[in-house]
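A favour, since you know our structure tokens better than I do. It will help me judge whether the discrete encoding reads sensibly. The space below this message is yours for that.
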Amino acid sequence: MECQHAQPLIRNQDWAKTTMDNVRGEHLEMSAILRGVLGTRYAVDEMALLFAEEATLSSFVRAAVSLGEGYTLFNTAYDTVKTSPILSEYHVRYWFLSTPHGFRVELMATYPGSPLHDQIQLGMSRDSVYSVHASFKCEDEEAYGNAVHSLKKNAYQLVQSCESSYGRFSYWQPLEAEERPHWFLKPRVNLRDAA
């Protein structure tokens, strides 16, 4: 006799596998885009998925780590983020998965207050997931400023700037794109650990 909880886990594993396979392919594409815009100085080391609810995020994590494909939960965090140019503040829960593919996956559930994430969540059902950003680390504030300047020079527009206990980051998209790419480019700088 089959355990009553086995079917939902199997369905969730299929969902997690399909999602993570898609993220892996998109990581390759976004890495090529970043190299085309900023050269080889930076590398996409994080891909992020937004969940409509934290319970769905938790289910996804359990399914992903149970796949046996090298996905490991290595950290969680809760933070408050201040935004601009629309001045606001929001709270966010992060879960981080390492992957066997050389990048990590940030899984996030945001609470109202982020103009960008709130807009995305308008079209999400409670059980859905949305690909948000391809992120790259800048060594210091000067490198962050250079990356932002290069994005502007290469016809990218700022969608949202953020400051948190971690540091600074921002979301960028091509200015002239007929259709917005599925992922924002997100430069980030860690000011907390550098202090």
Remarks:
- Confidence is low (pLDDT under 50) at residues 1-7.
- The radius of gyration is 17 Å.
- The chain has four helices and eight strands.
